[in-house]
Amino acid sequence: MQPILDISDLRKSYGDGFEALKGINLQIEAGEIIALLGPNGAGKTTLISTICGITTATSGAVTVGGHDTIRDYRAARAMIGLVPQEINLEPFEKVINTVRFSRGLFGKSPDEAALERILRQLSLWDKRDSQIRALSGGMKRRVLIAKALSHEPRLLFLDEPTAGVDVELRKDMWEIVSALKEDGVTIVLTTHYIEEAEAIADRIGVIAKGELLLVEDKASLMARMGQKQLDVQLSA
Ligand code: ATP
Description:
Elements: E1 5-13, E2 19-28, E3 33-37, H1 44-52, E4 59-64, E5 67-68, H2 73-78, E6 80-83, H3 95-105, H4 112-121, H5 137-148, E7 155-159, H6 167-182, E8 186-191, H7 194-200, E9 203-208, E10 211-217, H8 218-224, H9 227-235
Parallel strand pairs: 3-8, 3-9, 6-7, 7-8
Antiparallel strand pairs: 1-2, 1-4, 4-5, 9-10
Adenosine-5'-triphosphate binds at residues 14, 16, 18, 20, 38, 40-46.
């Protein structure tokens, strides 16, 4: 079966010549949850940004659902939802308009039933007419996910969705991710937390200094490596 995401020898150098991605290879099957673990500066955001077309790869190739992200950008991007690390929401906008507008940006026709489904899925339906500024941090994160799902993508990237949030909110996020998987959404998330990867991922990748050091089934990785060893690797 064709992977939903296929990354071949992806490299990214920034203008100063710094090589942030040093030849990443990764295939992801539809329906999987992959957690990419890595310390600050490992290249996690650069990887996601390059796949999503926010930055341009120096070389290599990425396909999403068989669509090349350069040659066939629109088709590939239509299949991708992106939840960025920072909360980039308009504070005075209503929840429902935020999601509605995002859907429009992807050229999808208005579909109030789809909007309702997405907002209900994230327990935001009762808050649909609230302004973003009135929401708690946890609810704002839910809106970010709803916005990313507005055009009904099959592949969702979550860039450090629980960075700086408390334990309660972290668990809340894990439940959302599991529910999305049940709905058939493929998820790639980045994290610093090994317990997060362990709690929700099917496979875990370890990324450091622009290299994907390993990608392995969670159970076999946990059995093979003690948590201590992984912690050492992540803090290197
Ligand atoms: P974090 O966990 O802190 O978000 P990360 O794993 O997401 O880190 P990136 O943000 O992808 O890491 O950064 C990877 C490397 O690329 C870092 O050394 C960073 O300083 C560098 N980098 C990122 N963006 C740029 C840029 N626009 N120009 C030059 N270097 C950059």
